[in-house]
Amino acid sequence: MAIPPKSVGAVIPTEDGLASRFWIKFRRESVLSLYSPFVICLASGSLEIDTFRHCIAQDVHFLKAFAQAYELAEDCADDDDAKLAISKLRKGVLEALKLHNSFVQEWGLGFVKECPINSATLKYTEFVLATASGKVEGLKAPGKLDTPFEKTKIAAYTLGAMTPCMRLYAFLGKELEALLDPNEHDHPHKKWIRNYSSEGFQATTLQTEDLLDKLSVSLTGEELNIIEKLYHQAMKLEIEFFYAQTLTQPTVIPLTKEHDPARDCLMIFSDFDLTCTVVDSSAILAEIAIVTAPKSDQNQPEGQITRMSSSELRNTWGELSQQYTEEYEQCIESMLPSKKEEFNYETLHTALEKLSDFEKRANSRVIESGVLKGLNFEDIKRAGERLILQDGCTNFLQKIVKDENLNANVHLLSYCWCGDLIRAAFSSGGLDVVNIHANELSFQESVSTGEIIMEVQSPIDKIEAFDKIIQGCSDDKRNLTVYIGDSVGDLLCLLKADIGIVIGSSSSLRTVGDQYGVSFVPLFPGLVKKQKEYGADGSCCIWKGQSGILYTASGWDDIHALFLGH
């Protein structure tokens, strides 16, 4: 990426601006770039100098392409203000080109001669220049553009192809700056990080985004779709650039990079409700019951399981939910120590036995209430197939289970009352090989009796199931266990696994964890710290369970990057 030109004025785009919407929409690409081995090593200060020098040397090619693209865009713009803004951006790039060698010397790299362009840089620069030349799908050939307005589209398209690069580097600069230790004066890449986190670069990025927004105002929906495609393509090319950097040093990620199925065993465990799903499965089952229940004035056929009316069900479910919420909060409060304790797994295990007793009582009330009577198996299956999963969850699991070289074991440990609902949700995504450990509804001729066959209904049940699965693994292989969860019920498994990843923002999980000495570390900073500790032979990179450290992820894309890279 180019060295930043000087600030041309900080213009903050509106939240609903085109550039802002695209940046949010393509968050996944920014996450994959952030978690690239190159950026992790750069942030840690351990990136080998030759790798850094080669990357910086590519700046010349970016700068030349950007300057040329801005020149073409300026020629296409028909608005004086737009021409002036583009001209200022271009002059900034030309100035940066002149200053390139002084920047390189300032970064302590010595003089870096212009080196041949690498394939990833070439792909991006050719893409930008092709766009700026009007070689865009759905657009007339440049020589056949009849009106100034048609030419203006090219300026908008060009900014659509260049803006993502600016925003991505502004994002990376800020993310990496936040990890700099003010007491660490010898971080070799501090100047690079500060360069992209600087007010000047942030301001230039905002002005580029603002210009894209202005150039796009009069475009049609179809033309805006073209810009979206260009923006997305640019983000994907940036990912390719970061992963194309040659690293000879050992890196902590991706976890699967050196996986040998003959020697290693990868065990991935996950909760289901609100870890994989957007909505809790108990609410889905209750809604099926309410929607399919007879109205109060309807006669029920003889020989069938007698059900409550839909209004009775709604009231009963409301009462059960309210009672659960109130007693859950009381239970959590009662199990907290009087003062914050040092982390001790066994102490926490004992404390969570209270929660286990509570969960069992709550489930007994559900069975006794009869709210789950009369559910049709096909209705449950259809609901499972339509169940909305968290963004990135299905894609990640599909890649894991379909990669024969990984030969990974994936297990779902869930409090869900109906394992068939989970199986339907995953089978629709081709994930039948996922092992489901959950409770089951009892059926008579495809209609639920209201009874629940209890298998996993408490934190203690979950950890016992977890331990049993681990004990069944071969001692001949090196096991790496990862648990992904979102609630207090997952806490023991999260801590017992080699790597525990918390997804979501459960306040009760944080409260209990904090009081029992558990540390919650954001995943990216945690990986940067691990990379710093990584010895040249890789001997220092050890993931170990019961350390009291859990990693927090903002979504499944973070987890995807951790395991698989891009």
TrEMBL record:
InterPro entries: HAD-like_sf, HAD_sf, Haem_Oase-like_multi-hlx, Thiaminase-2/PQQC, Thiamine_Salvage_TenA. It comes from the Eukaryota. It holds the Pfam family TENA_THI-4. GO terms for biological process: thiamine metabolic process. GO terms for cellular component: cytosol. Residues 37-132, 157-245 form the Thiaminase-2/PQQC domain. This is Bifunctional TH2 protein, mitochondrial. It comes from Gossypium hirsutum. The gene is LOC107899178.
